[in-house]
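User: Please predict the structure of the protein below. I'd like the answer in structure-token form so I can feed it into my own downstream comparison script.

Assistant: Understood. Taking the following sequence of 492 residues as input:
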Amino acid sequence: MAEHFDVIVVGAGLSGIGAAYHLQTMCPDRTYVILEGRQDLGGTWDLFRYPGVRSDSDMHTLGYRFKPWTAAKSIADGPAILDYLRETAKENGIDSHIRFGRLVSRAEWSSTTAQWTVHTQDTDAGQDFVFTCNYLFMCSGYYSYKNGYTPEFAGLEDFRGTVVHPQKWPENLDYAGKKVVVIGSGATAMTLVPAMTQIAGHVTMLQRSPTYVVSRPDHDPVADKLRKILPAKLAYQLTRLKNTTMQQIVYKKTRTEPEKVKAQLLGLVRAELGPDYDVDKHFTPSYNPWDQRLCLVPNSDLFESIRQGKTTVVTDQIVRITQTGIELASGQHLDADIIVMATGLQMVTLGEMDFVVDGEAIDFAKTWTYKGCAYSGVPNMASSFGYINASWTLRADLTCEYVCRLLNHMKQTHTMQCTPQLRQEDLGMTPRSWIDGFSSGYMERTMHLLPKQGDHAPWVNPQNYSADKKMFRKDPLEDGVMQFTRALAMTE
């Protein structure tokens, strides 16, 4: 017998817990459940256990709008963020709505009953459980929890040392005094390298190409001052406003004056590493700032480890893995006891599950994104996806508000189904990538699997917080695209 809820939320991470809070406060008469495939909440912040794991967004914007971040560090480590999520879930009674070990495998929509049937597997017992709901809210993130991305390297099987991926970090990995090579130049590598140097013999960051890196303190001095003179909630709101405004100003500058921003960023790196360091080779990307995500290092920890000689950055191509390390195109050989594959995530579409609408399997690559949170022809379903140019939660919170507006509108209009449908004037749209103008490898590898953007609203995936606030909170729900109907069984 299937259990029924008004809303099913898939995923108990940052997005899912936020969704639950909004449902409780904006739609208190609706029942909901959170289905979580793992045995604990937290998502990313429970999965990743590598040394130094932290956010590269400040917690005044990565934190929820409704839940002030009050800890001293604004650039927080993984365990602190997980504690924040646990506290949010517990103090709002959200934890009692989570079903752990329920891995969703398939969701089937019926227009006859205006319901989703959601199939799950018990990850411990292997037993199947079925749930039904009127609305499905996907908060499962954007990458595979099964495995990270590892390129194929010749000779990898010959290596006599240890190979690890940050997504599956061994609990008792001994790297004290060892020679470590971290392959990658993204946020994970930038975090791992200075953290591992604390006990490793030496750490080499091996990158194929450089990334923009900027240092900032892990404390926000303005937030510290505001907390001393204002109530916590008001201090948090003002700091959040300051930081979101600054994020948008900086991002806009990278679009309008990329060379100026580039010169400023590289100037800061040169000031950190001195005139003799080859910043052009190791810290000057071939793209403009924010064509890929900037890497944040707190308190200059990466630069400090380089200055102290504990870290070496090598920019080169890998020819093959050898028994004792890595052979490079330049002829150099990097000796290694441990190789860390900080080579990225494996991006997926909506939780690695199958979707069926009225008997037809959904290929999301053939759909058009509606406001970056829903999909053409797919009823009563939204997904939470944050910003690539700002903190994830800013957009996740707005998406939750919009979903609650939809649910309340359907109740007021006595409708049971809401479906974004292409109009006649939409049929000739020029397709664009779901994330436009962003060249990160983890995006480019899987962009062909994701929904398309159109060339006009609402068939776009905005990445603009100011515009999104208006779109999600104020724009009419009845826009001629989102179609509100009753269940077929009620109209016959």
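That's the full token string. The chain is about 30% helix and 20% strand.
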